[in-house]
Design goal:
Length: about 190
């Protein structure tokens, strides 16, 4: 992750009450370690469902963090990838992690827009790929390393780097199937809200 990551206050991260979040996912306030990132990632995925009901019904209120905190923490709902990633990034930054938000293109070898958000998170000097809201995807972070493999509750994933983008692949009967790809360019608030 480059040293020129976007400043934490660009996203108004204080709109999310970390104590309220930790109560919701039933974790104590951790130090920003790799083990804690693993636990936070798992707790988030187990607590908050992936859903897009508001978008389908025309009631989506935007991606501001105060709106997301109210939806996830007080109304006990879930959301789609951008909502999950923005909320989780705000929590991680307040806990002391360095976080970079990145956009990703689903089905990366086909034409189309980048419609997914992932996070690059630094913990204890190492960088991790964090994707908390991609369907039946990641239960835990993966090391941001070309060829990294992970067994996610029986679902095998691999992360590859082609010099331009990181591609998350899932092992299927047909072989390694690309799920999405993201460059190392940071996403800024003005580009997503």
């Amino acid at each position: 992750m480059s040293a020129d990551s976007e400043p934490a206050d660009e996203w108004n991260i204080r709109a999310v009450d970390v104590g309220e979040y930790l109560d919701r996912v039933e974790l104590a306030r951790p130090e920003p370690t790799a083990d804690a990132l693993w636990s936070l990632h798992e707790a988030h995925v187990e607590t908050f469902p992936f859903e897009n009901v508001d978008v389908v019904l025309g009631g989506h209120r935007g991606l501001a963090l105060d709106v997301l905190a109210e939806k996830f923490l007080r109304r006990r709902r879930g959301g789609y990838c951008y909502e999950h990633a923005l909320l989780f990034a705000a929590v991680l930054e307040q806990l002391g992690y360095r976080v970079q938000r990145r956009i990703a293109r689903v089905k990366p070898h086909q034409p189309g827009a980048s419609t997914h958000m992932v996070l690059a998170v630094e913990a204890e000097g190492a960088e991790y790929f964090v994707d908390i809201a991609f369907g039946a995807g990641m239960l835990h972070p993966m090391p941001m390393r070309d060829g990294a493999h992970a067994d996610q509750a029986g679902w095998r994933h691999r992360l590859t780097w082609d010099g331009v983008a990181w591609t998350l692949e899932k092992r299927t009967r047909q072989g390694w199937e690309p799920q999405h790809a993201s460059t190392e360019l940071p996403q800024h608030r003005s580009e997503s809200v």
